[in-house]
Specification:
CATH topology of the largest domain: Tetracycline Repressor, domain 2
Structural class: mainly alpha
Number of helices: 10
CATH architecture of the largest domain: Orthogonal Bundle
Order of helices and strands: EEEHHHHHHHHHHE
Radius of gyration: 20 Å
CATH class of the largest domain: Mainly Alpha
Largest sheet: 2 strands, antiparallel
Strand order of the largest sheet: 1-3
Shape: elongated
Helix content: 55-70%
Number of domains: 2
Strand content: under 5%
Length: 262
């Protein structure tokens, strides 16, 4: 039997997992005159399972989201699920890795587009993080809250992601007055504080409020390195910024090479 797919989203766009329903009609596999390769069918099923898993885990919690539920939400059979993943934990980790890759690409793009001034780049990066998570609350809950229930491997993945955020503190970011070793420890503390603050809002069901954190988090990110006066100016600029923000949770292809200096 031959199968064909409905049109995909715009070329080069990679939606964040959870931005669409798993049963998205645009990704329906239909009968047709052209036979799709097994690889294309599997990739489409994986993509739909990412969305189905995010929605089920966000709604029911990691422990209560069953493979059967995830498959139903994605419109994918259990045999197809197990052809792609070893089980629920494996599927969760794959979804998390894919989603955080998309998120980091968006942040990379914002950082690069802000220009040479590190304060502007820091603010733009934070704004992207907050607005993208607010635009896909199911992913925010899955990735920030339910990850705590997904086991030690998920915790390791979260630690790797937090280490990736250090790339946004590379030069031209000014050094703090601390030693080189303590300066790096300070970056770890700042990243951890931002993560904890964002996670708390998501856990409280206040994901839509995340963009409101921009002034405070801009200050937290910049003041330790620029000083309180410059950090305050950066925070006030963030609070007064009324330009349109991120409107779609999409990024360039995650397979492209990383930006220079990452």
């Amino acid at each position: 039997m031959s199968m064909s797919l409905a049109p995909h989203p715009a070329a080069g766009a990679t939606p964040l997992p959870g931005a669409r329903p798993g049963r998205d009609p645009e990704r329906a596999i239909k009968r047709g005159p052209r036979r799709l390769s097994a690889e294309v069918v599997a990739a489409t099923q994986r993509d739909r399972l990412f969305d189905g898993l995010v929605h089920e885990v966000a709604a029911k919690g990691y422990d209560n989201a069953r493979v059967t539920d995830i498959c139903r939400a994605a419109g994918v059979t259990r045999p197809a699920f197990y052809a792609l993943f070893a089980g629920k934990e494996d599927a969760f980790l794959a979804t998390y890795r894919h989603g955080t890759t998309v998120l980091l690409r968006l942040m990379d793009d914002a950082y690069a587009a802000a220009g040479p001034d590190w304060t502007d780049a820091a603010r733009a990066t934070l704004r992207t993080l907050l607005e993208v998570l607010a635009s896909v609350p199911a992913f925010a809950r899955m990735a920030l809250v339910e990850i705590d229930a997904a086991g030690p491997a998920a915790g390791d993945e979260r630690d790797l992601l937090l280490a990736e955020f250090h790339r946004f503190f590379h030069p031209p970011r000014p050094r703090s007055p601390l030693t080189e070793q303590d300066d790096e420890l300070l970056v770890t503390a700042v990243v951890g504080g931002i993560h904890t603050t964002v996670r708390q809002r998501v856990a409280q069901g206040r994901t839509a409020e995340l963009p409101q954190l921009l002034p405070a988090l801009t200050y937290a990110m910049t003041a330790p390195f620029l000083g309180p006066a410059a950090g305050g100016r950066a925070a006030r600029t963030a609070g007064a910024d009324a330009t349109p923000g991120v409107t779609a949770p999409c990024a360039a292809d995650p397979a492209r090479p990383p930006r220079r200096g990452a």
